[in-house]
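Exercise (ungraded).
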Amino acid sequence: MAKTLKVPEATIKRLSIYMRVLKDLEKNGIEVISSAELAEICGVNAAQIRKDLTYFGEFGIRGVGYYVKELHFDIRKVLGLNQKRNLGLIGVGNLGKALASYRNFSDHGYNFVAAFDADKAKVGTTLPCGIDIYHIDKLKQLVPELNIEIAIITTPASAAQDAADAAIKAGIKGILNFAPVQISVPDGIRVKKVDLTTEFDNLAYHLFTS
Amino acid sequence: MAKTLKVPEATIKRLSIYMRVLKDLEKNGIEVISSAELAEICGVNAAQIRKDLTYFGEFGIRGVGYYVKELHFDIRKVLGLNQKRNLGLIGVGNLGKALASYRNFSDHGYNFVAAFDADKAKVGTTLPCGIDIYHIDKLKQLVPELNIEIAIITTPASAAQDAADAAIKAGIKGILNFAPVQISVPDGIRVKKVDLTTEFDNLAYHLFTS
DNA sequence: TGGTGTGAACAACTTCACAGCG
DNA sequence: CGCTGTGAAGTTGTTCACACCA
């Protein structure tokens, strides 16, 4: 019985992790798992897992645990990941190329369908992974045409805001921003920033301080 | 007057962001900034910034704000980022190569000094960015020799745990793990996992669910 | 019996509101 | 006067502990 209390942001993040682990367990033929065992693998508290799940319903069997395959399917559905998503890459540098060819994304239903760059020398060429590179001006046309839902920005910091503006004007609703700069967007558009340097800073702090 | 109350994890993460913004402001010749202005740029609450800073001392001037250059320096010091760090890359695939050549890291004092891989065909060659590739067996020797402090794991999931084990045996204390798998480590070793697929999942959830 | 589902206690983090200082 | 620094209030997220059920 799905309740519609507001779901903590932290819960959403963990569900995505549970899903990955369940997928793995399923592949290895594990059929049933308890919250305690799953917690151990995911590195979280067992009550946490049970509580996370109650936001969306009851999925377990008392005295037994959870059916791996079933729970995997249910979480998938809850997260809206039971369908493929088309991605557009904006900014074809080293990082962009690496992301576009990262197998793990397509394994999870995320497919790059086009790449965009301002550099005329790159436009018209094709990435090793088979994705064509278009000029940024083509966003407006290709976003609807190829049904691109999410833009991945891997431009230099100085070009990131323009890239975001162009993507939004073309109809993009979600952006994953790898450029080391905060970009501002109108209401209704969702941006996630992935700041790798921040991760280093954090690690360094914990390693070398006090 | 630095107090030694425990510092929230969330505060550490934000300090790293403030620092990046302050660095930028300094470059643009801004000399003074109020918590309200800085908050606006960072997308957080002004009181949050002031509170974050109180964990480490008093850095502002009432009625005025903060001296950009000074605050930048102080946060840098607090985070232990006032010195360079040597990184070792383990797993020379597309992602690894992209990270090693990412200018933004070296701009912030993080330098890749060696790369390691199990593939004999890669060993002995040099990356475009000038970093030599060694066999994983060389970790034990080169980690102390090159003073490598942090390992960046970009191997396939199946090789990540072995890579971590080897790095730890060689004396590494901090690991940034890009492989899509949870790795387990002994006490005293710090691991940060960067899970890019999770970021997509999160974005997709917010975009396409209720 | 053993493990889920969950209210209630607890802990962590954020925001408010204002005293106090430059 | 304006903006910092900070106790106190408010909010959000986590863990406990146990009733309940397969």
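Further reading is listed at the end of the chapter. For now, observe: Residues 8-11, 45-48, 51, 61-64 of chain A lie near DNA strand D (CB under 10 Å from a C1'). The two ends of chain A are 48 Å apart (CA to CA).
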